[in-house]
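Structure (tokenized):
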């Protein structure tokens, strides 16, 4: 039995649930293998049902081998009909995914069922990666890294941010990626102060730092990495900020091992930046899980919960963002091992290797 199924059955016993309704496509894919864009999955201790409409019947026959297939004409009535046919009293559901209108209609048509919202309880479901998941993550990283190296000569003064992002995303497919994991970020000069600065028509200029946040997908699994490049010899401020961020990232990576709280890992990076006097310029968490979704559990942040376990995969990405000047972010993906962690991404974050 997969670890995820064991976790679900333990959760169901703790919550006294008869069945769980999955609505989000990442969890549906994870639990039954379906790669389409719509459907539902019912998980009970002794039975599983995958529900979809006729668009996906043949696809589901091939992909879904662990559940009975149910075809509906309309989603809500189809789910209602199946739930009525079972002897269910208490049902858990993905509270963070299902729309309020869908939830309202389901409750309206199933008034005798007790509905138990599940949100944080399902967060850890996909956090620990299995061997095949690790293979796909590493292939996504390989495709993204190879793509970045191929387009690197085009990152130079006079190039436009948008053109760099477009070239990189086009290259992903040539290197085996399915599609971009997210909209590629290219933020140069003063725009580097925008942590999620979408690539613009701005031209790169000599002496600027350029933040490039990129990733692709391989068989459903994503990569996520950020490089900060400097176009020419860095000035003193750029060099100082870069080295503070690099030190913060290295400190956080050294803190990772099974049993350590996610808040402690975040604090390891944050303390370096705060002691250097840049604490107010680091506003986001130090990292996040990566898998079927680009952002999933665990959350490596001051408000994150829980400890890290062997097999978890997440980013380590401290940054400093100074309005009107620019920013530096360095991001790598790691997998937790029995004695610490290993980098999955492999492009250098040393300043000397990122001066163009």
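Design, position by position:
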């Amino acid at each position: 039995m997969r670890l995820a199924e064991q976790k679900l059955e333990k959760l169901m016993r703790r919550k006294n649930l008869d069945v769980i309704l999955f609505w989000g496509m990442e969890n549906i894919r994870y639990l039954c293998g379906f790669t389409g864009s719509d459907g539902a999955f019912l998980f009970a201790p002794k039975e599983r049902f995958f529900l979809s409409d006729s668009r996906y019947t043949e696809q589901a026959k091939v992909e879904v081998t662990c559940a009975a297939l149910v075809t509906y004409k309309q989603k809500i009535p189809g789910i209602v009909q199946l739930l009525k046919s079972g002897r269910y009293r208490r049902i858990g559901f993905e509270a963070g995914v299902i729309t309020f209108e869908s939830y309202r209609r389901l409750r309206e048509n199933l008034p005798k069922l007790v509905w138990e919202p599940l949100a944080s309880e399902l967060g850890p479901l996909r956090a620990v990666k299995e061997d095949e998941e690790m293979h796909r993550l590493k292939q996504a990283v390989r495709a993204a890294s190879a793509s970045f190296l191929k387009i690197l000569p085009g990152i130079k003064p006079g190039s436009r941010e948008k053109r760099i992002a477009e070239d990189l995303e086009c290259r992903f497919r040539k290197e085996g990626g399915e599609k971009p994991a997210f909209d590629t970020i290219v933020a140069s000069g003063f725009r580097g102060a925008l942590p999620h600065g979408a690539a613009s028509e701005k031209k790169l200029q000599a002496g600027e730092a350029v933040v490039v946040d990129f990733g692709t997908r391989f068989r459903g699994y994503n990569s996520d990495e950020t490089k900060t490049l400097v176009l020419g010899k860095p000035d003193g401020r750029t060099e100082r900020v870069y080295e503070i961020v690099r030190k913060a990232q290295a400190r956080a990576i050294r803190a990772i091992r099974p049993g350590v709280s996610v808040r402690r890992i975040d604090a390891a990076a944050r303390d370096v930046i705060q002691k250097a006097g840049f604490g107010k310029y680091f506003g986001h968490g130090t990292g996040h899980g990566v898998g079927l979704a680009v952002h999933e559990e665990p959350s490596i942040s001051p408000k994150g919960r829980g400890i890290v376990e062997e097999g978890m995969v997440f980013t380590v990405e401290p940054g400093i963002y100074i309005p009107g000047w620019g920013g530096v972010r360095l991001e790598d993906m790691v997998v937790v091992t029995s004695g610490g962690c290993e980098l999955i991404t492999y492009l250098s974050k040393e300043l000397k290797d990122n001066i163009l």
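Reviewer-requested clarification: The chain has two domains: 3-126, 131-354. The chain has a mean pLDDT of 96.
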